[in-house]
C-alpha cells in the first residue's frame, strides 16, 4: 500500500492488471491500493485493451468499493465502452456487470449491448453461452435496479438460466467445494450482489453448543433480504404489495409480527 502509489506511474498495464488480480483474489480492501488502481485506469484507460480494463475494474466490484475518483472514472469508462463495445464483447459485458455492482448504470452502453446487432454478433462466437448468461443477469438487474431505463432489452429468445434447476446441497458441495471450505464464502456472495454494502455484510460465524458438540452455523444473523412473489420472482423492496405493508385485522398475531419484522429489516437495510 505504501509502495504502489509511488511506483504506479512506471508500471506496465499488464503488471498493474496482475496486481489488481491479486488484490481481488485476496480481498485486500485497502483504499490506497484500490485508489491507485483507479488513478492508473483513469490516466491510461483510453489506450488500454478492454480485457485489461475488465481486470482493473474487477477489484472494485468484488469488494464493492468506489475509488475516490469514481465520478470521473465512471464517466471515462462509459465513453470507452461506447467506443470499444464490439471489440471484446465478453470484456464489455464484464465491465458493465462491475459497474452495475457499484450502483452505476451507463444507459448508452446498455443500449449498445442489448441492441440486436451486438447480440447477433456474439451468437456465433465460442463464448456465446457465457455472454448470454451475463446479458441475462444484466437484463434482470435492469429490471430490479434501473427502473428508469428506457432502451432496448435482451430478446427473450437469448435469455438463459445460470442453473438449470435448484442446486441440492450435494450438488453445491461438488460444484463449489473449494470455495465452500472458506468461512467467508457466504459473505463473499452477499458482497457481490448489486447494491450490497460489504461493511454491513456479516461474516458467517460458527458457535459451539453447550454440550460441546461440533460447531454449527450461528442462526441469529441475517446478511440480506429478498422479497419474492408467489411465482418465485424476486421483487425490489419498493414493490412490496400494499396488503403486506398493512395486514388485515383477520391476520394472526404471528403473521402481523412476521410482516412487521420484515418491514423493519427492510428499512434497516
TrEMBL record:
Domain FAST kinase leucine-rich: where?
53-120
Q: Which residues form the FAST kinase-like protein subdomain domain?
A: 132-180
List the coiled-coil residues.
Answer: none
**GO molecular function terms listed in the Swiss-Prot or TrEMBL record:** kinase activity; RNA binding
The record's section on InterPro entries has: FAST_2, FAST_kinase, FAST_Leu-rich
Q: Keywords assigned by UniProt?
A: Kinase, Transferase
Any one GO CC term of the record: mitochondrial matrix
Q: Can you cite a GO biological process for this protein?
A: mitochondrial RNA processing
Q: Which Pfam families match?
A: FAST_1, FAST_2
Listed name of the protein? FASTK kinase
Organism equals Centropus unirufus
Amino acid at each position: 500500500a505504501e509502495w504502489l502509489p509511488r511506483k504506479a506511474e512506471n508500471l506496465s498495464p499488464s503488471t498493474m492488471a496482475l496486481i489488481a488480480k491479486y488484490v481481488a483474489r485476496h480481498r485486500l480492501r485497502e483504499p490506497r491500493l484500490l485508489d491507485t488502481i483507479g488513478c492508473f485506469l483513469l490516466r491510461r484507460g483510453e489506450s488500454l485493451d478492454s480485457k485489461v480494463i475488465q481486470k482493473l475494474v474487477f477489484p472494485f466490484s468484488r469488494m464493492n468499493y468506489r475509488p475516490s475518483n469514481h465520478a470521473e472514472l465512471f464517466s471515462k469508462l462509459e465513453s470507452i465502452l461506447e467506443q470499444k463495445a464490439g471489440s471484446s464483447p465478453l470484456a464489455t459485458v464484464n465491465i458493465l456487470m462491475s459497474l452495475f455492482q457499484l450502483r452505476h448504470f451507463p444507459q448508452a452502453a446498455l443500449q449498445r449491448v442489448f441492441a440486436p446487432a451486438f447480440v447477433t454478433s456474439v451468437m456465433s462466437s465460442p463464448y456465446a453461452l457465457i455472454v448470454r448468461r451475463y446479458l441475462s443477469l444484466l437484463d434482470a438487474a435492469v429490471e430490479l435496479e434501473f427502473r428508469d431505463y428506457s432502451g432496448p432489452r435482451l430478446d427473450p429468445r437469448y435469455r438463459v438460466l445460470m442453473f438449470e434447476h435448484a442446486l441440492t446441497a450435494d450438488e453445491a458441495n461438488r460444484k463449489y467445494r473449494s470455495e465452500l471450505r472458506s468461512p467467508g464464502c457466504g459473505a463473499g456472495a452477499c458482497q457481490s450482489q448489486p447494491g450490497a454494502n460489504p461493511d454491513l455484510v456479516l461474516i458467517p460465524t460458527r458457535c459451539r453448543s453447550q454440550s460441546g458438540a461440533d460447531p454449527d452455523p450461528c442462526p441469529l444473523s441475517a446478511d440480506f433480504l429478498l422479497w419474492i412473489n408467489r411465482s418465485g420472482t424476486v421483487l425490489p423492496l419498493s414493490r412490496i404489495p400494499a396488503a403486506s405493508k398493512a395486514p388485515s385485522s383477520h391476520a394472526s398475531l404471528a403473521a402481523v409480527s412476521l410482516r412487521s419484522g420484515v418491514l423493519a429489516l427492510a428499512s434497516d437495510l
